[in-house]
Task: structure prediction
Amino acid sequence: MGAVLELEGVTKSFGEVRAVDELHLDVRRGATYGLIGPSGAGKTTVIRMIMSILFPDRGSLTVLGRRSALEAKDRIGYLPEERGVYRKMRVDAFLAYIAGLKGVPRRRALERATRLLERLGLADSMRKRCEDLSKGMLQRVQFVASIINEPELLILDEPFSGLDPVSVRVLRELIAEEQQRGATILFSTHIMAHAEELCERIVMIHKGRKVLDEPMAALRRRFDTRKVRFEPLDETADLEPLSRFPGVVRMVRTGEGCELELAENVDAAGIMRNAAAAIAPARIELARLRLEDIFIRLVAADGRGLEMSEQALRTHLQGLGNEGVAA
Amino acid sequence: MIGRAALVAKREYVTTVSSKGFLIGLLIMPVMLVLIGTLVPRLLDAQRAQVRAEVAVIDRSGSALDELRASFDPQALAARMTAGARGGMPARNASPPVLTLVERPGSADIESEKEWLLADGKQRAQRAIVVVHPDAVERRPDAQEFGSYDLYVSAGLRDAAESAIRESVRQALIGARLKASGLEPSAIQAAMRVSRTNATIVAAGGEQKAQRGFNRALPFVFGLLLFVGVMSSGQTLMTSMVEEKSSRVVEVLLAAVSPLELMWGKLLGQLGVGLTVMSVYVGLGILGLSQFQLLGLLDPALVVYLLVFFVITYLVFGALMLAVGAAVNQMADAQTLMSPVMLLLIAPYVLSFFIGQAPDSPFSIAVSFIPPVNSFGILARLASDSPPPVWQVLLSMLVGIAAAVATVWFAAKTFRIGLLMHGRPPNFATLIRWARMA
Result:
C-alpha cells in the first residue's frame, strides 16, 4: 500500500532552537503510527508542519499525495494538543460548523454527529451550549469534531492529555473503530504505554531528531526482555528451585518475589507453567516491552540525552506519574 | 478557498449581529442623538422655567420706571424669549422667567436697601437691586455717553436670573432713551430687524439652496460615521480573535482552514457587520432628512463615496486590529499595540470637522492623499461646500487601496505566526520581524 504521508529531510528552527532536524518519515496507508518522545521533543512541530500550520525551513512533505495539507484538509482529521471550542456555541452548531469547513454537508454532519455522540454517551448534549459541558465531555466533542468528516488520515496530538480514565478508555475504543474503518492514524504522545497498546509502528523523536522508526512487532522481537515476573502466594515460600529450571539464566529477588531472566530460544510459556506447578503463584507474568526503556537506551547510545538525567527522562516519558493511563 | 472563507465570514457575521452587545452598541448612537436633540433642551428649558427673582428698582433718573415696568412684564419677558433675544436662537417651548418688580423711591439710600438682599438669611435668595443712574435716560449736556445703572445681587442669585434682569433693564433704558428723544421704540425696533435668508448656491449643475448649518455639520457627520463603523467592526474583530486564541479554538479551526482563509473570513465577516452598521445609520439619517423635507440636500453620490471609503479604511484598520488580536493572548496585552492604531483613527476623525471648514487649504488637500487618514480627509472635503475635483477623489481612492493591500499583506504575514504564539506579548518591532520571517 502507498504512503499517505512522506517527509523528506524536514527541518524547522525557531530562532536558535532547531525544533525538527532532518526528519524522514513514511506513513503507510491504513497503519497506526505512534510519534513518541518527551515533552519538547518536536512532535507538535512535526504535526503542525504536516497540517501546513507551520512550514518547514528545509525539506519537503507530501500529504495524501498532495504537496500541502491545505489541498487535502477535507480528507484529514486533526485533534490538536491545544484544543478548544466556541464556548457560547451549541454542540450541534459547533460540529456542523467544523464539518462545513471540511466540506461535509450540514445534514450528513448532524447525522454522523448524532451517531457518534450517542456512542459516547452524549446524545442529550447535542442542543447544549459547549460551556455547559464538563471538561471530559468537551474532549469527546472535540474528538468527534476531528473525525466528523470520516478522514482518510487522522492525526491526534496528545489525544489522552488531561483525560480521566473513563474518557481515555472511550477514546481508545473510538480510535480502534477508526482503525477498523481503514483510517491511517498518526498520533503523538509522551505516554509510552498508550503507544504500546495502539500502534503498529513507533517513531521516536528526541530533540527534533528521529532516533527510532520500527514496527512494534519488530521492536518486541529486538528488545524482548526475556523476563518472567513471579510473585508467590505464600510470601515465605522458597523460590530457589525456580533458578534451577532449565533455560533460566539468572534469578533476581524483588520486593514481591523474583524476576527470572531466560536464555535465548527458551519457551517462556513452558517456564511459566512449570513455575506455577512448583510454587503456588499470586501472580505470574511475562515482563512487557517498555518503550521508555528502549527510548532511554537509544538516547544514551545517541549521546544527545546526556544533559537530562535518566530519571528526568523517565519522568517525561511516563507523563509525570502516568497521567491519563487508563485502567 | 472562497467557500471556507465564506463560511468563516458567515459565522463571524451571524454571531456578531445576533449578540446583545451588537444590538445595544448599534442603538446607542441614535438613542444618544435623540436624547441630545430632545431631552437635553427640555431639561435646560425646565431649569429656565424655574427662574424667579425679586428685583428692587431705584430710578434716580425719574423717567425710566414706566419702561422698566413694561420690560419686566411677564408678557414682554415671554415675547423676548420667543424671539430668541440672545444670539438669534430659535424659539423653544419653555416658560419665561418670572421677575417681580419692587419699586423703591428714587431717593432711597442704597446702603440701607442692601440689607434687603441679606433679608431672611436665605442662602439662595433670588433678589437684586437695580439703581438707574440720574443720566441714564437723558445725557448730561457736556457728556457723549448716557449714564447706566448699578446692579446689586444676593449671593445666591442664579446666572439665568441675572441675565434676564440685565436684558430687561437694557431694553427698558433703550426704550426710555428713544421716547425721551421723541422716537417711537417699536418703529425703531422694526427698522432694525432684517430677517436672515439662506444663500442660493449657483453651480454648473444647477441652483441649490445652501443650508450652512447642514453643510458645516456634514463633514463631521461623515467622519463620525466612518469612525464608528471602523471602530465597531475593528474592535469586534480583535476581540473575537483574542477569544479564539485564548480559548485555543484557533488550532481546531486551522485543522480545517488555512490561516489565510481564516483571516479573510474574519475580515470579510466583520466588513459585513460594519456595512450593516453604516447602512442602519445612513438609513436613519435619510429617514430623518426626509421627515424634514431636507432629503434634497444630500447628494446620493456622497453615500456611495462614504461606503467605498469605509471599505478601504476598514480593510486598513481591520487588518491591523486582526494582526494585533492574533499576536496577543488577552485583551489587556492588546492595549499597547492598539494605542498608535487608535491615534491614527481618532486624529483624522477630529480633524474632519476643520477640514470641512477649509476644504481647499493645502493641509486638507495633503491629508487627502496620506494613508491611512486619507479617507477622512477626502470624505470631509466631499461633504463640504467645496468638493474636490474627481481626479483627487480617484487618486485618494487609489492611495487607500494601495494602503489596504499593504496592510492586509502585513497582517497575513504576522497573523500566521501570531496565531500560535503564546507568552510575552509582542511589540510592533516583533510584528515586523514576524512579517519578515513568514
Remarks:
- Residues 52-189 of chain B form one domain.
- The first helix of chain B runs from residue 2 to 17.
